[in-house]
Every structure is written in C-alpha cells, then in structure tokens.
UniProtKB/TrEMBL annotation:
RIO kinase domain residues: 31-262
The UniProt record lists the keyword ATP-binding: yes
PANTHER family: SERINE/THREONINE-PROTEIN KINASE RIO1 (PTHR45723)
Catalysed reaction equations from the record: L-threonyl-[protein] + ATP = O-phospho-L-threonyl-[protein] + ADP + H(+); L-seryl-[protein] + ATP = O-phospho-L-seryl-[protein] + ADP + H(+)
Pfam families reported for this sequence: RIO1
The entry's keywords: ATP-binding, Kinase, Magnesium, Metal-binding, Nucleotide-binding, Serine/threonine-protein kinase, Transferase
Entry-linked SMART domains: RIO
Top-rank taxon, per record: Archaea
Entry EC number(s): 2.7.11.1
Gene Ontology MF term list: ATP binding; metal ion binding; protein serine/threonine kinase activity
Membership in a protein family: Belongs to the protein kinase superfamily. RIO-type Ser/Thr kinase family.
SUPFAM superfamilies: Protein kinase-like (PK-like) (SSF56112)
Name this polypeptide is given: non-specific serine/threonine protein kinase
Length: 268
C-alpha cells in the first residue's frame, strides 16, 4: 500500500473508532441509507466534535435531516430527556466557504483568526453561536443557542410536536400588514438592542409558528461597526420590501434604514 493509501486507511480506522464510540453513547448516524451525504457531512473532525458533545451529554441522539443548505446540514436531535434540539453542521469538505471570509474578516470580534478553510468555518460556527446569544439576551425571537464545538452548533428546536415551524415562504402570512410590521420591528430591535444586522434576511430565514415570527440562520450577522454594516442592513430591508411589495403597503427603504440607524447614519 502506498503512503496515500496508508493515510486513508488510518483515517478510515479513526472514523470507525469514533463511530463505535458514538454508538456506545447511543448515537447512531452512519447506518442511514444516505451514505454519500453522510460521508460528506460526518468527516473525522465532525465526528470528533459530535463525540465530545455526546460525551458531555449535550446531545443524546441525532435524528432526521431538516435541511441541506449551501454550507450546512441541519438535523433534528435529542438533548436529554425527550427534549428536541437542532444540530447545524457546517460542512468542512463541500461547504461554500469563500463568502464567509468577507463577513468574518471585517468583524472586529473575529478579525484575528487564522485564515485556513477550517479556521474560518470554526470561527463562523462560533460567530453564529455568539450572534444567537446576543440576540437572545436582547429578547429577540431566535433559537436559543445551547452549545458549539468546531463546526457544530446546537440550538433550540423551533417547532411543535417534533414538526419544525415552516419558513415564511412556505407559510405566507394571513395578515401581511401585521407580519411586515413585526419584521421591521425585529430588524430594528436586532440593530438597536442586540447591535446586530442579520445580513441574509429573507422569507427563507424567517420561521413562522406559535403565533409569531422567528429569525434564524445568524452566522453571517455582523455588528454595526462592520465596514459593510449599512449596506447589509439596506439589503435586508430591500429583501423584506420585495417579499411584501405585492402583499401589502410597504414603506420607502431609505426611510426605514434611516429610522433604524438614526444618528449612526451620520457617523463616519
Ligand atoms: N432551530 C431550528 N428549529 C427548527 N428548524 C430549523 C432550525 N434551524 C434551522 N431550521 C431549518 O433548517 C433550515 C436551514 O437552516 P439555516 O437557514 O440555519 O441553514 P442554511 O440556510 O442551510 O445555512 P447556510 O445557507 O449558511 O448553509 C431552516 O430554513 C429551517 O427550515
Ligand atoms: Mg438559511
């Protein structure tokens, strides 16, 4: 066997060992039928992070897939006695991580990280965790962050009876006027109270359920001192106006921006 072959075999052995450890902890993931997807998501680094989370009893089960996105896979999971939670795994092998650099490197909280692909993904995961914490502390309706390790984020499950709340795009609001107001209020509070700009706001990243709207997917959210902060905020506002434009009366996007950022607008 060549050197390359030996390396691969060693990795396979380590992966198998981690697999066994995880099954010992009652967590089964690799016997599902979507083998290829699983191989792409559950590489050695990811399995090791999962093992640590399972060993600490943060997670007790990995459930079905909720979503496969550009950068991440989202699974339902168990977090202790009958409690649902969500595992978001940023893919190390096949993630589209190039765009991540722009958001991370302009953010003073994360500007000193090393710049390898893995480092950026780990920093991104940590950033999503801390963004969710900030938003939670400011009282915004976002999933409560529970834990993170490397490329894995564990958060509260938003849903009822094991069924996740639908994205706004799949469950258009019965009262669009009210939903529009609610979202503008969320963007405003996110900026003014949590000091965050979502940065990828659309009907895809808003869930609707329990008689309210929820903001999710906050990895790219930045603070107002990010050099592109107001450009991202303006883009979020335009996205929301685009969605509501043919559903209810909308406000002028420049007026909304000024209303949200207030005096910040004039600071250099
Ligand atoms: N906490 C949660 N509770 C219930 N469902 C969730 C939760 N988080 C995510 N989901 C579901 O998974 C989908 C994808 O999640 P999310 O938007 O965070 O990742 P993504 O769009 O794949 O991210 P990226 O674009 O960065 O790859 C959501 O649209 C939602 O349907
Ligand atoms: Mg999303």
């Amino acid at each position: 066997m060549g050197r390359r072959g030996e390396e691969t075999k060693k990795t396979d052995d380590r992966i198998e060992a981690l697999d066994r450890e995880l099954s010992r902890l009652g967590i089964r993931i690799r016997d599902a039928d979507q083998r290829k997807v699983l191989d792409e998501v559950f590489d050695e680094v990811t399995l090791h992070a999962l093992y640590k989370l399972a060993n600490k009893k943060v997670i007790t089960a990995v459930g079905g897939s909720l979503s496969t996105g550009k950068e991440a896979n989202v699974f339902s999971a168990g977090c202790g006695e009958g409690k649902d939670c969500v595992i978001k795994i940023y893919r190390i092998r096949t993630g589209n991580f190039n765009a991540m650099g722009d958001y991370i490197l302009g953010d003073p909280r994360f500007s000193n990280i090393r710049k390898t692909k893995k480092d950026i993904i780990f920093a991104w995961t940590k950033k999503e965790y801390s963004n969710l914490s900030r938003a939670t502390e400011a009282g915004l309706p976002v999933p409560l962050p529970i834990a993170f390790d490397r490329n894995i984020l564990i958060m509260e499950f938003l849903g009822e009876g094991g069924i996740p709340y639908p994205q706004l795009r799949l469950d258009p609001p019965a009262d669009p006027e009210r939903a529009y107001e609610e979202i503008l209020d969320l963007i405003t509070r996110l900026y003014q109270k949590a000091r965050l700009i979502h940065g990828d706001l659309s009907e895809y990243n808003i869930l609707s359920g329990g008689d309210r709207l929820w903001l999710i997917d906050m990895g790219q959210a930045v603070t107002p001192d990010h050099p592109s902060a107001h450009r991202f905020l303006f883009r979020d506002i335009k996205n929301i106006n685009r969605y509501f434009g043919n559903r209810c009366t909308i406000l002028d996007e420049h007026d909304i921006l000024k209303g949200i950022v207030g005096e910040d607008f004039f600071t250099p």
